[in-house]
Write a structure and sequence with these properties.
Elements (H helix, E strand, L loop, with lengths): L7 H10 L20 H10 L12 H11 L5 H20 L3 H18 L1 H22 L11 H24 L3 H33 L5 H7 L5 H15 L10 H9 L4 H12 L2 H12 L1 H16 L6 H18 L1 H12 L6 H35 L5 E12 L3 E3 L35 H7 L3 E2 L2 H5 L6 E2 L3 E2 L1 E2 L5 H11 L16 H12 L19 H25 L9 H12 L6 H10 L8 E3 L2 E12 L4 H13 L3 H12 L11 H21 L2 H19 L2 H14 L10 H6 L15 H5 L2 H8 L4 H19 L8 H10 L1 H6 L1 H22 L1 H7 L3 H8 L9 H14 L1 H19 L11 H10 L2 H12 L4 H18 L9 H13 L3 H58 L3 H10 L5 H14 L13
Parallel strand pairs: 3-6
Antiparallel strand pairs: 1-8, 2-7, 4-5
Helix pairs in contact: 3-4, 3-5, 3-6, 4-5, 5-6, 7-8, 10-11, 10-43, 10-46, 11-12, 11-43, 12-13, 12-45, 13-45, 14-40, 14-43, 15-16, 15-37, 15-39, 15-40, 16-36, 17-29, 17-33, 22-23, 23-24, 25-26, 25-28, 26-28, 27-28, 33-34, 34-36, 36-37, 37-38, 38-40, 39-40, 39-42, 40-41, 41-43, 45-47, 46-47
Length: 1094
C-alpha cells in the first residue's frame, strides 16, 4: 500500500481501526526512505508499531538523531534529557499512561537504539559536536586556531579552547567526576592542538598539487606591498565616500588604495586603466562609473555646504552682517575692551547747545550768587554810610524877606459903567431881512444854479452824486469848473431869495448842507423856489425903505441932542460914545422926549470909579550863614567847571548834567551821602556809555569829575568802608562784567529775561584758553564737566574720519591743537591720552584677519582674510580666533561666510569645460581648498571654530579626502594600441569568429598551393589555430577586462582584497576570498551603482 498517497485523515482512520501491534512484531517494514519527504516519513512513522512500548530499538536514523543531540558539547546531555521528557509527556497524554512510565520507556528506547547502532550513533555524536562547536568558532575563531597568526600560536589557542570545552563536557556527562573531567580535558586539548597542525599539512599538500588558485596572482598584484593599515584606511575611505550625507561618491579600488597610500597602488591603477580602456563590458562599467561622478560630487558638495551654513539671501547683506560681527569681535578683544573702556571714559558726545546750556545756567547762577552776596553786604554798609553824621560845614549867604513901604495905586474904568436901570444902547439899523422880499421868477433852485454855472465837482457835492443831476438844455447841476458855494452861491442865492439872510441881516452863515439837501429833494422831484414867490404883491415895505426911515429919525435925534447940549454949555464932542449911544437910544425908542432928560438919565445911571489899590511890598536881603552836611561836593563842582571851560559838543552837555546831579532839585548843593552816591552812579553809567562808543574825551572829562567826587565821598569813613567792601565783593564778579567772555555768557535781557548769547555759542566763547581758565576758577563743577566733554567731543570729532573711526596720530594732532585748554583740564587730557594709547594698541588687532574683516562690508575680502591663498606659518591660530569671534556674535553670518567661500571655490573647480562636466573637479576643489600644509591647518581651524565645528569639520574632511581620492583616477594614456586594434577590425569588417574562419581558409589555400592536399590540410590546421587563438585571446582579454572592471569599481571588492592580502598563498582563506572575488567579477552586475558594503 502506497502510504504516501493517503491523506492524513485517512491514515488516522486506518490507524484507529487497526489492531494493536504485537510486542514481537519485529522490525519496522522496510521502505525506500531516501526518496521520501519529511512529511511522508512522519506519516509512515505513524503507521508503524510503538517501538518504545514494545522495548524495541530504533533504526540507524534514530541512532544518528540521538547522537546529534547528545553529541553537542556541554549541553548535549541536557538537550537529550529535555527531548526525552518532551516525548514522554506527549506519549503520556496520547496513551493516557503515567509520565514516569513513558519517560522510562523513552530512555530505554534511546539506549537500545544507540547500542544497536553504535556506528550511526557515534557518527551522530561527532556531527553534533561539530555542529555545536561551529557557533563558538564563528564567534571567536582565533580561540580555535582559525586566524592568520603563526602555527604555534594557533595550536596553543586551539589546544586551550579544546581542553576547556572537553573538560566542561566531561563534567556535565560524568556528574562532576574529577577523573572524567581530567580525561575529557586531556583528550579535548590534544585534539584541539593537533587540528591546526594537521590542517597546515594538508594545505601544503593541496597547494603543491594545485599550484595556487586561479586568478590569485593577479589579485595579489593589486595589493602587493600594501600594509594592513593601508588597506583598512582605503576600505574606511571608500565606505565613508559611499555614506556621504548628500549621496554616495563612488571610489574605485585603485583610487581608494592610492589615496590611502599616497599613490603606492600603481599596479591597481594600471589594471583599472587597462580595464577601462580595453573596450567591451569593462569599458562600459568604467564609463558609467566615471560618468556618474560629477553629479555625485555636486550632490555631496551641495549637501555638505548646507550642513556648513545656510545660503545667504543677499551676498551684499552678508558682507554688512559679517562686518558688524567682526567689529563686535574686535571690540571684545582685550585691546578692543581697553579701547571701549577708554572711549566710554570720555563720556557721551555732547552738542554745543547742550554744553552751552549747562555752562550758561551754572555761570548765571554763580554770577547771581556773587551779586547777591555783594548786594547783601552793600545794603548793610551803605545804609550805615547814608546815616553818617553831618560834620561838614559850608559858609554861604541866605536870603531873608521883610515888609516894605505901602504903594497906593488909583483905579478907574476904561469906559463908563452903567447900572441896570440905564437906557439901552442904540440898536442896529434895519437890515435886508427887515423889509419885504422881492419875489424871483418861477425858476427852481436847481435850474437857477444850472443856468448860472453850476456847482464845483468836489467834496460833499461829489459825494451826493449831483453831477448825475442834469437839467434839460442846461447840463448838470454839478460839473467840473463849477462856482464855489462859499465864494459865490451863498450871497447870490440869499440875494435871489432862495435862502433867508442871517438874523442880523448878513449873509455869512453856511448854507452848504441846506443847499445840498434842497438840490437832492429837487432831484427827487420836489423843487425849491424863492421864498417870496408865494406871497401877495405889496405885503410890506422893503428893507431899503426901512433903512431910509431909520437913518432920518437918527439924524433928527442927534441934531436935537447936540443943540441942547451946546445950549446947556456942554461940548457934544466931549460926551462919551457910550453915553451918546444910550441917550440916542432912549430918544429913538421914545422913552424920553427931551434930549437933555435922556442925557441926564443916562449920566445918573453911571457907576462910580473903584477905590485906589494899596500894596505892602516884601524886601529880600542876603545874610551870612553856615550849612552842615555829610559830604562837600564843591571840589567835584570845581572839576566840572574846569573841564567845562574847554569842553565842546556833547561833552559840555554831559558835564552840565553831572553838575546838575551834584545839586538838589532847588539848586542847592547836595551834601547828602545818598544823593552824591546816586550822582556817582550816574557818572559811572555815563563813563561806561562813553567807553562803549569809544569817546575817550568824554571819558577823560567825566572821570576827572568822578575822581573828585569819589575822593569827597571816601572822606566819610562809613562810605570808605562800604566802597572797600563793595570793591572786594566786586572782584570775583569782574570776569562777568562788560565784554569779558563770562560777561557775554551770562548777559541777560532785563526786560524779557532771556539770555543775550545763544547757548550754542557759549562753548566757543569759554573754549578759548583764557576764558576757560576764568570759568574753571569759578565754583562750577557742572560747567567744568560740560566744558571737558565739549573739548573731548571737539577733539574726537576732529580726529574721527568719515567712516566713524579715528587714528592715534590724528587724535594726538587734535590734542596738540587744544593743548592750552587741556592744560587747564588735566583730567580730560589724561582720558584722551589713555584713549590714544588704547587706539594705538588696536593696530595689531586691525592688522589681523578679524580686523581686516571689520574694515569694510566685503564678502570677498572677508574670505581672503580667513582663507588666504598663501598664509604665513602659524596663521591658523589667528584665523580660528577671527572665525570664533564672528560665530560668537553672529553664528548664521559666520556659517554663511564659510559656506560662501567653499561653494565659490567649488563652483569654479567643477565648472564645465566645453559643455562637459569636469571629471577632476572634485579633486581640484579639494586641492584648492586645502592647498599647502598651512592652508590645510587654517581651513581646519576656521571650520572647527564654527558652532558644532567638530561635526562640520568631520563632514568636510571626509568629503575633501573623498574628493582628493578622485584625483587618482588613472589617466587614459596613449590610444595608439587601441586605435590599431580598432582600425584592424574596421579594415576586416569581420567578427572574431569570422576572422578565425578567414584565417583558416587563407591558410588552407596557401598550403594547398604549396603542398597539395597534405599542404592544404596543414595550412588549414595552422590557419585555424592562429584564428581561433586570436579570437580566444580577444575573448579572454575582454572577459578579463570586465572582471577587473567589476573588481575595481564594485564597493564589495575592497574588503575581500584586504582579506586576500592577509591570507597566505594557497591557504583556505586565500581560496575563499579568491573565489568570492572571481564570482563577484563574473556576477554581471553594475557594482558602481550598488551601496557600499558595511
Amino acid at each position: 500500500m502506497d502510504l504516501s498517497k493517503i491523506s492524513d485523515d485517512e491514515l488516522q482512520r486506518l490507524y484507529q481501526s487497526a489492531a494493536a501491534p504485537q510486542a514481537t512484531a519485529g522490525a519496522a517494514p522496510k521502505a525506500d526512505l531516501a526518496g521520501m519527504s519529511d512529511a511522508d516519513l512522519l506519516k509512515l512513522h505513524r503507521g508503524f508499531s510503538d517501538a518504545p512500548t514494545a522495548a524495541e530499538p530504533g533504526d540507524a536514523s534514530a541512532a544518528v538523531g540521538r547522537g546529534l543531540i547528545e553529541g553537542v558539547p556541554v549541553v548535549g546531555p541536557y538537550l537529550l534529557a529535555g527531548a526525552n521528557r518532551a516525548a514522554a509527556g506527549i506519549r503520556a497524554l496520547k496513551n493516557d499512561t503515567r509520565f514516569s512510565d513513558e519517560l522510562a520507556n523513552v530512555e530505554r528506547f534511546g539506549e537500545r537504539t544507540a547500542a544497536e547502532h553504535p556506528i550511526a550513533s557515534g557518527a551522530g555524536e561527532i556531527g553534533g559536536g561539530v555542529v555545536g562547536a561551529l557557533p563558538l568558532m564563528a564567534a571567536a575563531p582565533a580561540a580555535f586556531g582559525i586566524s592568520g597568526a603563526a602555527l604555534p600560536v594557533r595550536m596553543a589557542a586551539s589546544g586551550l579552547s579544546g581542553a576547556g570545552l572537553g573538560g566542561a563536557d566531561a563534567a556535565v556527562r560524568s556528574g562532576g567526576d574529577l577523573g572524567a573531567i581530567e580525561q575529557g580535558a586531556a583528550i579535548g586539548g590534544g585534539l584541539g592542538a593537533g587540528g591546526p597542525l594537521i590542517g597546515a599539512g594538508v594545505g601544503r599538500v593541496v597547494r603543491a598539487i594545485k599550484g595556487g588558485n586561479p586568478g590569485e596572482h593577479l589579485l595579489r598584484e593589486a595589493t602587493h606591498g600594501l600594509t594592513e593599515s593601508e588597506l583598512a584606511a582605503a576600505q574606511s575611505l571608500r565606505d565613508g565616500a559611499m555614506n556621504s550625507p548628500g549621496g554616495p561618491v563612488a571610489l574605485s579600488v585603485d583610487e581608494a588604495l592610492n589615496a590611502a597610500t599616497g599613490g603606492k597602488a600603481v599596479r591597481a591603477s594600471q589594471l583599472a586603466r587597462v580595464a577601462a580602456n580595453s573596450g567591451g563590458e569593462g569599458s562600459r562599467i568604467a564609463g558609467e562609473f566615471y560618468a556618474a561622478r560629477p553629479a555625485q560630487v555636486d550632490n555631496a558638495g551641495r549637501a555638505l555646504f548646507d550642513r556648513i551654513g545656510a545660503e545667504p539671501a543677499s551676498p551684499t547683506g552678508l558682507g554688512f552682517d559679517v562686518q558688524t560681527a567682526a567689529r563686535q569681535g574686535v571690540m571684545q578683544t582685550p585691546e578692543g575692551t581697553a579701547l571701549s573702556q577708554a572711549r566710554a571714559a570720555t563720556g557721551p558726545r555732547i552738542t554745543p547747545e547742550q554744553a552751552g546750556r549747562i555752562i550758561q545756567d551754572e555761570m548765571r547762577g554763580v554770577a547771581d550768587a556773587l551779586e547777591a552776596r555783594r548786594a547783601a553786604q552793600a545794603d548793610v554798609d551803605y545804609r550805615a554810610a547814608r546815616a553818617a553824621p553831618e560834620t561838614v560845614g559850608i559858609e554861604r549867604t541866605t536870603t531873608v524877606e521883610r515888609p516894605g513901604e505901602p504903594i497906593v495905586t488909583p483905579q478907574q474904568y476904561s469906559r463908563p459903567q452903567f447900572a441896570d436901570g440905564a437906557p439901552a444902547p442904540l440898536g442896529p439899523p434895519p437890515g435886508r431881512a427887515d423889509g419885504a422880499i422881492q419875489e424871483a421868477g418861477p425858476v427852481s433852485l436847481g435850474r437857477f444854479i444850472a443856468q448860472n454855472g453850476g456847482l464845483p465837482l468836489e467834496g460833499d457835492v461829489l459825494a451826493t452824486d449831483l453831477h448825475k443831476f442834469g437839467i434839460p438844455g442846461l447840463g448838470n447841476v454839478a460839473r467840473p469848473g463849477g462856482k464855489s458855494i462859499d465864494n459865490f452861491w451863498r450871497e447870490r442865492l440869499i440875494e435871489e431869495g432862495y435862502f433867508r439872510p442871517d438874523a442880523d441881516g448878513g449873509m455869512a452863515r453856511d448854507i452848504s448842507s441846506e443847499l445840498l439837501r434842497k438840490l437832492q429833494n429837487e432831484q427827487r422831484g420836489v423843487p425849491s423856489y424863492p421864498l417870496g414867490s408865494s406871497r401877495a404883491m405889496g405885503a410890506g415895505p422893503t428893507a431899503g425903505q426901512l433903512g431910509d426911515e431909520y437913518a432920518t429919525a437918527l439924524s433928527q435925534a442927534e441934531n436935537r441932542l447936540n443943540g441942547d447940549l451946546r445950549a446947556a454949555g456942554v461940548d457934544p464932542a466931549s460926551v462919551h460914545p457910550d453915553v451918546r449911544s444910550r441917550t440916542l437910544g432912549a430918544l429913538m425908542r421914545g422913552e424920553t422926549a427931551e434930549p437933555l432928560d435922556a442925557f441926564e438919565r443916562t449920566v445918573n445911571a453911571m457907576r462910580e470909579q473903584p477905590a485906589p489899590l494899596v500894596k505892602t511890598p516884601t524886601v529880600t536881603e542876603e545874610i551870612p550863614d553856615i550849612r552842615f552836611g555829610q559830604v562837600d561836593p564843591r571840589p567835584a563842582l570845581a572839576a566840572v567847571a574846569e573841564q567845562g571851560r574847554t569842553a565842546k559838543g556833547d561833552v559840555r552837555g554831559a558835564l552840565t548834567a553831572a553838575g546838575r546831579d551834584l545839586r538838589e532839585p532847588g539848586g542847592d548843593l547836595d551834601m547828602s551821602v545818598a544823593g552824591l552816591l546816586h550822582a556817582r552812579e550816574r557818572l559811572d553809567f555815563s563813563i561806561r556809555a562813553a567807553q562803549d562808543i569809544g569817546d575817550a574825551t568824554k571819558v577823560r572829562d567825566l572821570q576827572a569829575t568822578r575822581s573828585a567826587l569819589d575822593a569827597q565821598l571816601k572822606s566819610v569813613p562809613e562810605v570808605a568802608t562800604a566802597d572797600a567792601n563793595f570793591a572786594a565783593n566786586s572782584a570775583p564778579l569782574e570776569p562777568f562784567t562788560g565784554n569779558n567772555p563770562l560777561g557775554r555768557v551770562v548777559r541777560r535781557d532785563d526786560l524779557t529775561g532771556r539770555m543775550a548769547t545763544p547757548a550754542e555759542q557759549v562753548p566757543g566763547i569759554v573754549g578759548q584758553p583764557s576764558a576757560a581758565r576764568e570759568m574753571l576758577a569759578q565754583p562750577a563743577p557742572n560747567s567744568r564737566q560740560a566744558l571737558g566733554r565739549h573739548v573731548e567731543t571737539q577733539i574726537l570729532d576732529r580726529a574721527t574720519g568719515a567712516n566713524g573711526d579715528f587714528s592715534a596720530d590724528t587724535l594726538r594732532a587734535a590734542m596738540r591743537e587744544h593743548a592750552d585748554v587741556l592744560d587747564a583740564l588735566p583730567e580730560v587730557r589724561d582720558r584722551l591720552s589713555r584713549l590714544t594709547m588704547a587706539r594705538e594698541g588696536m593696530a595689531r588687532i586691525e592688522a589681523s584677519p578679524l580686523g581686516q574683516i571689520a574694515q569694510r562690508p566685503d564678502v570677498a575680502a572677508a574670505t581672503r582674510a580667513l582663507f588666504a591663498p598663501n598664509p604665513g606659518p602659524g596663521s591658523h591660530i589667528e584665523v580660528a580666533g577671527a572665525m570664533q569671534a564672528l560665530a560668537r556674535n553672529d553664528a548664521p553670518a559666520a556659517q554663511s561666510l564659510a559656506r560662501t567661500y567653499l561653494e565659490t571655490v567649488f563652483n569654479e573647480a567643477t565648472q564645465q569645460s566645453k559643455g562637459i562636466a569636469s571629471q577632476y573637479g572634485g579633486a581640484g576643489f579639494a586641492s584648492a581648498i586645502r592647498g599647502n600644509a598651512q592652508q590645510r591647518h587654517n581651513l581646519e581651524a576656521v571650520i572647527r571654530a564654527l558652532p558644532d565645528g567638530e561635526t562640520r569639520w568631520g563632514g568636510l574632511d571626509r568629503l575633501l579626502t573623498t574628493l582628493e581620492a578622485t584625483g587618482y583616477r588613472p589617466a587614459k594614456g596613449s590610444d595608439t594600441a587601441f586605435n590599431h586594434a580598432i582600425q584592424k577590425e574596421f579594415q576586416s569588417g569581420k567578427t572574431h569568429v569570422g576572422q578565425a574562419v578567414s584565417d583558416a581558409v587563407t591558410g588552407m589555400v596557401a598550403g594547398a598551393a604549396a603542398g597539395g592536399l597534405k599542404g592544404g590540410v596543414a595550412g588549414l590546421a595552422v590557419g585555424a589555430k592562429h584564428g581561433i587563438g586570436d579570437a580566444m585571446m580577444r575573448a579572454r582579454m575582454l572577459n578579463s577586462g570586465e572582471a577587473v572592471a567589476r573588481l575595481m569599481f564594485d564597493p564589495k571588492a575592497l574588503p575581500d582584497l584586504r582579506a586576500l592580502s592577509k591570507s597566505p598563498p594557497g591557504s583556505k582563506n586565500a581560496e575563499l576570498f579568491t573565489s568570492r572575488l572571481l564570482s563577484l567579477a563574473n556576477a554581471g552586475a553594475a557594482p558602481a551603482r550598488e551601496p557600499a558594503a558595511q
